[in-house]
Amino acid sequence: MGKQVEALAQFVAETQWDDVPPDVQRHAKLVVLDTLGVMLAGAGRPEVCELRTRMLAGGGSGATVLAPGWPSGDVRTAALLNGIGGRSIELCEGLRLVSGQPAIQILPGVLAVGEQARSTGREMLSGFLLGYDVAARLCMGFTARPLAHQNGQATMLGAAAAGARVRGLDAAGVSLAMRIATVLVLTPSYNNVVAGATALNVAGGMSSFAAALAPDLALAGFGAQEGAVEEALGELVGSGFEVAHLVDALGSRWEIMRNYFRLYACCNPVHPALDALQHVLGELKPAPSDIERIDIATYRFASVMRNPDPPNYFASKYSLPHAAATMVVRGGASHAMLDDTALADPQIVALRHRVTISEDPAMSALAPKLRPARVTLSLKGGRAATYEVSSHRGDFHDPFADSEVRAKYRALAGEVLTGEGVAAVERAVDRFEDWTTTSELLDLLRRHTRAR
To answer: Do the beta carbons of residue 299 and residue 372 sit within 8 Å?
Structure first.
């Protein structure tokens, strides 16, 4: 194992919660709260419900599945199901400067392993935050292949490190768990999103599965080769892995502080155009029937999300014409608005065919540091308005207020919990480091489930 990756393993094993600056601690808990809301809402997707029924039919216990009824499954099954559910509604947070969604691929595993091991809140928070940092640093050094989606790739190794920390492994054990996890790394494709292939969400859940499995393999005596991380990311699933800056500012620059949150329930590259569209809608205040066309110019990665006829709910999350038309007709692009019914809404269906998407090479040259978009809205009577943004709201230049992220959590958690329960869970997460076990959360979930 290379010295940089080994230094990461030592960092995970030895860093204590009290070593973390207070602002980082607060932000980490906000990320946990946001991710928990996403997991609760995502548990209701039809394919997730059906999978849960099938996987839990054989019994098993050890960790709680975060879905109404709060069934118990073995620790790996619970981690997998909670991760898949959280990935399924396209609202999880992610890394700002590189491709990666660490929280939803790490937190379900941390909670499941922590429940089984009866870990304290500090132990689980430490594992989550440190695994997140490792995942982000691995993603920054990793060159993914052109079609590869980040689910279940470099972040899986950060999840394994997080699980190992929660299990109490030392630096050698964390190192071993990460190297073992390289044989589990997956090869999901971005083409899944166009096809509406929800199998992509399984890849995200498998990272949390690895968080539960890899430490057990290490403790059972399984071995792994030296240099497995570098080989897997640099030569097997990826086309390059640069270690030179892997430990830069380790322990002083916390990668979770450079994340983004989502308020729109669709793929992040679509968000700048939606921000610009929202501005011109506010200026012109048109009825959907007044609109002649919507022209969107944006950077390359966002410009390919242009299918006006997404085949299902999942694919609709990656269709800029659909998200734009939904914003016009329904007034926004939240989870409640970009729902299953939006696909068949006749006003939305008609309008998304009047949305054109093009790449602006000058904007592409600015990505990923900036993610620009320009929207021109033309009305049938001849009036038009244009607005351009340099990047989406929530980016470094215009971050969301904590209150906005909390409002998102409340809306999502409110699909599963009573109002009293939503507030009680929020207060509990704010004092996560004081938990004696996960029962601090799970008892509240069971007590405050909404009647169905």
So the answer is: yes
Higher local confidence (pLDDT), 58 or 400: 400
d(CA 57, CA 169): 32
Close Cβ partners of 6 (under 8 Å, ≥ 6 residues apart)? 171, 175
Q: Which helix (H) or strand (E) holds 79?
A: helix 75-87
Q: What is the DSSP string of 293-343?
A: EEEEEE-HHHHT---SS-SSHHHHTT-HHHHHHHHHHHS--STTTSSGGGG
CA 273/CA 305 separation, integer angstroms: 11
Q: Tokens 């009577």 correspond to what residue?
A: 381
The token pair that represents 236 in the structure block? 């097997």
Write the CB contacts of 119 (distance below 8 Å, at least 6 apart in sequence): 113, 127, 166, 437, 438
User: pLDDT category, 391, cuts 50, 70, 90?
Assistant: very high
- What residue type is 291 in one-letter code? I
What's the token pair of residue 21?
Answer: 């600056």
User: In the predicted model, what is the mean pLDDT of residues 367-375?
Assistant: 95
Residue 1: per-residue pLDDT:
52
Spatial neighbors of 261 by CB under 8 A, at least 6 apart, are 34, 93, 394, 400, 404, 405, 408
pLDDT tens-digit series, residues 36-70: 999 999 999 999 999 999 999 977 789 999 999 99
> Using CA atoms, how far apart are residues 361 and 363, in angstroms rounded to an integer?
5
pLDDT tens profile 227-239: 999 999 999 999 9
Can you read off the two tokens belonging to residue 413? 């958690």
| Mean of the per-residue pLDDT values of the chain | 96
Residue 199: CA count within 13 A, CB half-sphere: 10
356: confidence class by pLDDT, cuts 50, 70, 90: very high
Encoded tokens for 329 = 């007709």
> Which of 137, 155, 134 has the alpha carbon at shortest distance from 209?
155
Tell me the C-alpha distance between 114 and 108, whole Å. Answer: 10
pLDDT in tens, 111-160: 999 999 999 999 999 999 999 999 999 999 999 999 999 999 999 999 99
Burial class for 85, CB neighbours closer than 10 Å (0-12, 13-18, 19+): buried
First to last CA, the chain: 52
